[in-house]
Request: fold
Amino acid sequence: MTKGQRIGALALAVLVAVVAFVVLRPADEDSTTADRRATSGTASSTGDAKKADRPQAEPAPADSEIRLRDGEVVGEPEEISLDQGDTARIEVSSDKAAEIHIHGYDKYVKVEPGKPVKTRFKADLEGIFEIENHDTAVKIAELRVNP
Reply:
């Protein structure tokens, strides 16, 4: 056997030893438990407790919908209540062109007839803000941002 063949055989023996160690080493308790759960299709009470400790993602709040007819709000002006830092989601539809103004945030939204418009913004200012149809100066909603 040549020197190169001996080095190759030694390298192969080391590789086989490493692979055998990785494959045959004892598994820790967590992976064994996980393997048993995966094969049995059940979760352990410890796994359920870990899931309960994780914060659940809250569903995004629905859009507040405001409908205008002849420049006036259909029904009573909407009362939109949010916590400071929430995302305001407001959808406005109208049968006539209108410009909507969200006071305090100085946000203007142009609405075209028959084309609902959605606006979103971070409600980071605490207080009560009027939302009005700027064309008719009619209050169409009230935005309340709580601390």
Remarks:
- Helices lie at 3-24, 29-40, 45-53.
- The first helix runs from residue 3 to 24.
